[in-house]
Amino acid sequence: MSGPAIETVDLTKRYGNQVAVDSLDLTVRDGEIYGFLGPNGAGKSTTIGLLMDYLRPTSGSMQVLGLDPQQDVVDLHGRVGVLPDRFSLYEDLTGRRHLEFVIDTKHATNDPESVLERVGLADAIDREAGEYSQGMGQRLALAMALVGGPDLLVLDEPFTGLDPHGVRRVREIVHEEHDRGATVFFSSHVLGQVELVCDRVGILHHGRLVTEGSLDELRSAVDLEADASMEDVFVAYTDTPDVNATSGEGGR
Protein backbone atom coordinates (compact mmCIF):
# COMPACT_ATOMS: atom_id res chain seq x y z
CA MET A 1 0.00 0.00 0.00
CA SER A 2 1.07 3.62 -0.43
CA GLY A 3 1.30 5.86 2.61
CA PRO A 4 1.70 4.96 6.28
CA ALA A 5 -0.01 1.97 7.88
CA ILE A 6 -1.17 4.15 10.79
CA GLU A 7 -1.41 7.92 10.96
CA THR A 8 -3.01 10.09 13.62
CA VAL A 9 -3.23 13.88 13.73
CA ASP A 10 -3.96 15.66 17.03
CA LEU A 11 -5.79 12.54 18.25
CA THR A 12 -7.34 13.17 21.67
CA LYS A 13 -9.53 11.16 24.02
CA ARG A 14 -10.93 12.67 27.20
CA TYR A 15 -13.03 11.16 29.95
CA GLY A 16 -14.47 14.19 31.69
CA ASN A 17 -11.48 16.12 33.01
CA GLN A 18 -9.10 13.21 32.46
CA VAL A 19 -7.07 13.17 29.23
CA ALA A 20 -6.21 9.60 28.22
CA VAL A 21 -4.71 10.44 24.80
CA ASP A 22 -3.40 13.96 24.35
CA SER A 23 -2.97 15.50 20.87
CA LEU A 24 -1.24 12.40 19.51
CA ASP A 25 0.59 12.73 16.19
CA LEU A 26 1.73 9.22 15.32
CA THR A 27 2.99 7.72 12.06
CA VAL A 28 3.69 4.01 11.65
CA ARG A 29 5.33 3.26 8.33
CA ASP A 30 4.08 0.53 6.07
CA GLY A 31 6.04 -2.68 6.63
CA GLU A 32 7.80 -1.77 9.87
CA ILE A 33 7.68 -3.20 13.38
CA TYR A 34 6.75 -0.32 15.67
CA GLY A 35 6.94 -0.58 19.45
CA PHE A 36 4.56 1.55 21.49
CA LEU A 37 6.28 1.84 24.85
CA GLY A 38 5.03 3.33 28.08
CA PRO A 39 4.04 2.54 31.66
CA ASN A 40 0.64 1.16 32.56
CA GLY A 41 -1.90 3.97 32.30
CA ALA A 42 0.08 5.90 29.69
CA GLY A 43 -2.73 5.63 27.12
CA LYS A 44 -1.43 2.79 24.94
CA SER A 45 -4.56 0.62 25.09
CA THR A 46 -6.80 3.65 24.66
CA THR A 47 -4.89 4.59 21.51
CA ILE A 48 -5.33 1.08 20.12
CA GLY A 49 -9.02 1.20 21.02
CA LEU A 50 -9.37 4.42 19.00
CA LEU A 51 -7.51 2.97 16.01
CA MET A 52 -9.77 -0.09 15.99
CA ASP A 53 -12.98 1.94 16.57
CA TYR A 54 -13.62 0.30 19.92
CA LEU A 55 -13.63 3.88 21.25
CA ARG A 56 -14.50 7.18 19.62
CA PRO A 57 -12.09 10.12 19.83
CA THR A 58 -12.92 13.43 21.45
CA SER A 59 -11.09 15.23 18.64
CA GLY A 60 -8.45 14.71 15.97
CA SER A 61 -8.26 12.35 13.00
CA MET A 62 -6.72 9.01 12.10
CA GLN A 63 -6.24 6.59 9.24
CA VAL A 64 -5.36 2.91 9.41
CA LEU A 65 -4.28 1.18 6.19
CA GLY A 66 -5.59 4.23 4.37
CA LEU A 67 -9.07 3.75 5.87
CA ASP A 68 -11.09 5.80 8.34
CA PRO A 69 -11.75 3.49 11.32
CA GLN A 70 -15.10 5.16 11.99
CA GLN A 71 -16.37 4.96 8.41
CA ASP A 72 -14.68 1.78 7.13
CA VAL A 73 -14.65 -0.40 10.23
CA VAL A 74 -15.80 -3.62 8.51
CA ASP A 75 -13.20 -3.35 5.73
CA LEU A 76 -10.56 -2.39 8.27
CA HIS A 77 -11.15 -5.35 10.58
CA GLY A 78 -10.99 -7.65 7.57
CA ARG A 79 -7.38 -6.55 7.04
CA VAL A 80 -6.20 -6.23 10.64
CA GLY A 81 -5.39 -8.87 13.23
CA VAL A 82 -5.85 -7.63 16.80
CA LEU A 83 -4.72 -9.03 20.13
CA PRO A 84 -6.37 -6.71 22.69
CA ASP A 85 -4.95 -6.19 26.15
CA ARG A 86 -8.28 -7.25 27.69
CA PHE A 87 -9.91 -10.00 25.68
CA SER A 88 -12.58 -12.56 26.47
CA LEU A 89 -12.77 -16.18 25.41
CA TYR A 90 -15.81 -18.45 25.33
CA GLU A 91 -15.02 -20.82 28.17
CA ASP A 92 -17.22 -23.65 26.84
CA LEU A 93 -15.74 -23.54 23.31
CA THR A 94 -12.59 -25.35 22.29
CA GLY A 95 -9.54 -23.72 20.77
CA ARG A 96 -10.57 -25.22 17.43
CA ARG A 97 -14.04 -23.64 17.58
CA HIS A 98 -12.54 -20.24 18.41
CA LEU A 99 -10.36 -20.44 15.31
CA GLU A 100 -13.20 -21.71 13.12
CA PHE A 101 -15.36 -18.78 14.23
CA VAL A 102 -12.72 -16.19 13.24
CA ILE A 103 -11.94 -18.02 9.98
CA ASP A 104 -15.63 -17.94 9.03
CA THR A 105 -15.96 -14.29 10.04
CA LYS A 106 -12.98 -13.24 7.91
CA HIS A 107 -13.85 -15.61 5.03
CA ALA A 108 -10.32 -16.98 5.41
CA THR A 109 -8.96 -20.39 4.43
CA ASN A 110 -6.65 -21.11 7.37
CA ASP A 111 -6.45 -24.56 8.90
CA PRO A 112 -7.15 -24.26 12.67
CA GLU A 113 -4.61 -26.95 13.52
CA SER A 114 -1.83 -25.18 11.61
CA VAL A 115 -2.52 -21.81 13.22
CA LEU A 116 -2.66 -23.25 16.73
CA GLU A 117 0.52 -25.20 16.09
CA ARG A 118 2.28 -21.90 15.32
CA VAL A 119 1.45 -20.59 18.80
CA GLY A 120 2.15 -23.87 20.60
CA LEU A 121 -1.43 -24.98 21.26
CA ALA A 122 -1.73 -27.95 18.92
CA ASP A 123 -2.04 -30.37 21.85
CA ALA A 124 -4.89 -28.33 23.38
CA ILE A 125 -6.89 -27.69 20.23
CA ASP A 126 -9.93 -29.70 21.39
CA ARG A 127 -9.85 -28.59 25.03
CA GLU A 128 -12.36 -25.99 26.19
CA ALA A 129 -10.88 -22.53 26.69
CA GLY A 130 -12.17 -22.54 30.27
CA GLU A 131 -9.46 -25.11 31.02
CA TYR A 132 -6.67 -22.95 29.58
CA SER A 133 -4.10 -21.18 31.73
CA GLN A 134 -3.57 -17.44 31.32
CA GLY A 135 -0.63 -18.02 29.00
CA MET A 136 -2.59 -20.52 26.90
CA GLY A 137 -5.44 -18.04 26.59
CA GLN A 138 -2.96 -15.39 25.45
CA ARG A 139 -1.61 -17.72 22.77
CA LEU A 140 -5.13 -18.58 21.60
CA ALA A 141 -5.97 -14.89 21.26
CA LEU A 142 -2.75 -14.42 19.26
CA ALA A 143 -3.72 -17.31 16.98
CA MET A 144 -7.07 -15.63 16.33
CA ALA A 145 -5.25 -12.41 15.40
CA LEU A 146 -3.13 -14.28 12.84
CA VAL A 147 -6.11 -15.60 10.88
CA GLY A 148 -6.34 -14.40 7.30
CA GLY A 149 -2.75 -13.17 7.00
CA PRO A 150 -3.53 -9.58 8.11
CA ASP A 151 -1.86 -6.57 6.51
CA LEU A 152 -1.52 -5.04 9.97
CA LEU A 153 -0.98 -6.94 13.21
CA VAL A 154 -1.87 -4.98 16.36
CA LEU A 155 -0.67 -6.58 19.59
CA ASP A 156 -1.48 -4.94 22.92
CA GLU A 157 0.87 -6.26 25.63
CA PRO A 158 1.33 -9.59 23.80
CA PHE A 159 3.75 -11.06 26.34
CA THR A 160 1.34 -10.95 29.29
CA GLY A 161 1.19 -14.25 31.17
CA LEU A 162 3.71 -16.03 28.95
CA ASP A 163 6.66 -18.08 30.12
CA PRO A 164 10.09 -17.45 28.52
CA HIS A 165 9.41 -20.00 25.78
CA GLY A 166 6.10 -18.32 24.97
CA VAL A 167 7.75 -14.88 24.89
CA ARG A 168 10.39 -16.17 22.48
CA ARG A 169 7.72 -17.73 20.26
CA VAL A 170 5.77 -14.46 20.07
CA ARG A 171 8.96 -12.65 19.00
CA GLU A 172 9.52 -15.27 16.32
CA ILE A 173 5.95 -14.89 15.06
CA VAL A 174 6.32 -11.10 14.92
CA HIS A 175 9.38 -11.50 12.70
CA GLU A 176 7.66 -14.14 10.57
CA GLU A 177 4.68 -11.86 9.97
CA HIS A 178 6.99 -8.95 9.19
CA ASP A 179 8.92 -11.10 6.70
CA ARG A 180 5.58 -11.99 5.09
CA GLY A 181 5.00 -8.28 4.49
CA ALA A 182 2.77 -7.29 7.41
CA THR A 183 3.16 -4.15 9.48
CA VAL A 184 3.36 -4.93 13.19
CA PHE A 185 2.31 -2.42 15.88
CA PHE A 186 2.62 -3.61 19.43
CA SER A 187 2.54 -2.05 22.86
CA SER A 188 4.53 -2.93 25.94
CA HIS A 189 5.67 -1.39 29.20
CA VAL A 190 8.95 -3.35 29.16
CA LEU A 191 11.82 -1.93 27.11
CA GLY A 192 13.67 -5.25 27.04
CA GLN A 193 10.81 -6.87 25.12
CA VAL A 194 10.59 -4.02 22.64
CA GLU A 195 14.27 -3.72 21.80
CA LEU A 196 14.52 -7.35 20.66
CA VAL A 197 11.80 -6.88 18.04
CA CYS A 198 11.22 -3.33 16.84
CA ASP A 199 12.53 -1.13 14.04
CA ARG A 200 11.29 2.03 15.75
CA VAL A 201 9.90 2.87 19.16
CA GLY A 202 7.57 5.60 20.39
CA ILE A 203 7.40 6.41 24.11
CA LEU A 204 4.01 7.46 25.46
CA HIS A 205 3.71 9.33 28.77
CA HIS A 206 0.42 10.66 30.15
CA GLY A 207 -1.15 10.26 26.71
CA ARG A 208 1.54 12.23 24.89
CA LEU A 209 4.21 10.93 22.52
CA VAL A 210 7.30 12.28 24.26
CA THR A 211 9.90 10.85 21.88
CA GLU A 212 10.33 8.29 19.10
CA GLY A 213 13.04 6.89 16.89
CA SER A 214 15.24 3.88 16.37
CA LEU A 215 16.67 2.19 19.44
CA ASP A 216 20.08 3.67 18.72
CA GLU A 217 18.55 7.14 18.57
CA LEU A 218 16.66 6.62 21.81
CA ARG A 219 19.71 5.28 23.59
CA SER A 220 21.63 8.46 22.79
CA ALA A 221 19.24 10.84 24.59
CA VAL A 222 15.70 10.83 25.94
CA ASP A 223 14.02 14.12 26.87
CA LEU A 224 11.21 13.82 29.41
CA GLU A 225 9.21 16.39 31.30
CA ALA A 226 9.26 15.67 35.02
CA ASP A 227 6.16 15.68 37.19
CA ALA A 228 8.33 15.39 40.31
CA SER A 229 11.28 17.58 41.26
CA MET A 230 14.40 17.19 39.13
CA GLU A 231 16.23 16.00 42.23
CA ASP A 232 13.75 13.12 42.64
CA VAL A 233 14.11 12.21 38.98
CA PHE A 234 17.90 12.07 39.25
CA VAL A 235 17.69 9.84 42.30
CA ALA A 236 15.29 7.52 40.46
CA TYR A 237 17.27 7.23 37.24
CA THR A 238 20.94 7.72 38.04
CA ASP A 239 21.34 4.12 39.22
CA THR A 240 19.07 2.65 36.53
CA PRO A 241 20.82 0.18 34.18
CA ASP A 242 21.64 1.65 30.74
CA VAL A 243 21.31 5.24 31.97
CA ASN A 244 24.73 6.82 31.36
CA ALA A 245 24.01 10.38 32.52
CA THR A 246 21.22 12.67 33.62
CA SER A 247 20.88 16.44 33.28
CA GLY A 248 18.01 18.85 33.60
CA GLU A 249 16.83 22.39 33.29
CA GLY A 250 13.41 24.05 33.56
CA GLY A 251 11.61 20.86 34.59
CA ARG A 252 13.01 18.76 31.70
Automatic annotation (TrEMBL):
MF-aspect GO terms: ATP binding; ATP hydrolysis activity
Pfam family membership, one: ABC_tran
Chain ranges of the ABC transporter domain: 6-231
Keywords carried by this UniProt record: ATP-binding, Nucleotide-binding, Transport
Family membership: Belongs to the ABC transporter superfamily.
Protein known as: Copper ABC transporter ATP-binding protein
Species name: Halocalculus aciditolerans
